[in-house]
Design goal:
about 150 residues; alpha+beta; 6-stranded antiparallel beta sheet; 4 helices
Amino acid sequence: MTYGFHKAHGTEEHLLKEVFSEEEIMLIQAKLEQNNFQYLDGKSLEVICKSSGSNLYLRVLLQNQDKSFYYPIDAQFKQTDKKHPFKTAAPLIIDYIQAYLTEYFQDPDTYLTIEWGDHEMDGIEFLLKGQIFNVTLEEQANQFMANKVH
């Protein structure tokens, strides 16, 4: 299983550029946490937003401390005109993800597809996917299998 941001988006890490400053990312994360604080129950939210060429790659990661709950929500946006710069598109996509999180927290059986799906918000078209992992359990299983082979 691949959890890395750049691998999930099919990009090379060295080709990615930050879209927002560290301070802007911290403000975005703080707003998401404030909007969802009553549901987080020991989980944290992390936002990653990078670009490469005309592509925007965004991840909102919901996880608990030991990563037994690890939910990356990934989005991709292709800029086709100057009308939608990344700093305009990204907040709209984050708002869409916030709306999804509100639904998810109210009904945990509400899931995104694990394959890229088309979505739209305020004229911005983008791809979105998400899948919940238990990274802790998968790492234990991998360790067990590695020891079993030897």
